[in-house]
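Running this now, will post back.
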Amino acid sequence: MLRIPASLLLVVFLSHQCHGVRDEKTDSFSDWVKEHGKVYPSWEDAVYREKVYHQNLLEIEDLNQKHRGRTEFRANQFADLIPQEFQETVLMPRRSGVDFPQDSYLDIGHVESLPDSFDWTTQGKVTSVKDQGSVGTCWAFSTVGNIEGQWAMQGKPLTNLSVEQIVDCDGTMDKEQKKADCGVFGGWPYLAYQYVQSVGGLETWSNYSYCSGIGGGPGSCFPCKAPGYNKTYCGPPVPWCLKNESCAAKINPQRFVPDLKVTGWKAVSKNETEMAASLVKYGPLSVAMDASRLQFYHRGVYNPIDCSKTALDHAVLVVGFGSEKEIFKTHEYWKVKNSWGLKWGEDGYFKIQRGEGMCGINTQVTTAQLAT
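Update: finished.
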């Protein structure tokens, strides 16, 4: 890959300048390239990415006008991607959710009252924000985030657990629901819990570090398909891979975190009052949603007018809830941990409207159960 210094990018885009007069559009792009450390394979691709970047600035301006300050959008690390590229490289294929059996749901009972706000990040139950990179591994980050929270809820040290182990090794499938875990092509937290249960545990992040989404740089890897990978549900596996960077060569059960055992999983009610009560009682919850319009989110309560409640393409971790007051209205929200790095959103988190099933966030809520 060719790393293009921001100073040289100005030479490429001389057509935007005139006799030494600064061109604000070109300066904007070159500053953005430098800020995000972008690497392009050719000058031609850099020229194309600048064009996409400026098209996205217009889209961001339009989004800010439509949301009238309640939600703010900004050019982030995804500002050189068209929507289709964002969907294909960061999100999972859009698909319908799972019909969980009725006996799989937690029985939360009658909810008498809830606090006005709640946040597990202030109580030592949520690990640091991670970055999945340019692959669809959000489902594994959501799964691990939930298990990390469950482990901490037992009074154990807050521990960064291995996402890569699940990405490399989990080929679990559900023939009845026609769902499967597909490595870098997406998956389902409820199946990932079953994988961790069947294999007997998880290594730590430091022992089995994340490498799938790094994109060819230092520390990256090219693992082959997981054992049991199902082409019918997942599509063709990656066309090129290295066996010595794959599950069989890397996993070591002797390094599993001692006593961390998944014994099962539970679904959580779609009723968002009961969902909030479950969050308070049981810890951070894995959820899925439609994130197709979340690309340029910066801050505020996310409340898009055109997201789906049934076509889901992203998995995240709900860690809290609260409300923001306007003059005539109060907006209730969920606080959600994402896996797009600290530069995205509100230090890696976002808020989304609560109580309306926004973007399907209440439809696939699950939590692991650990041995005590």
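Residues 1-22 have pLDDT under 50 and may be disordered. More later if anyone needs it.
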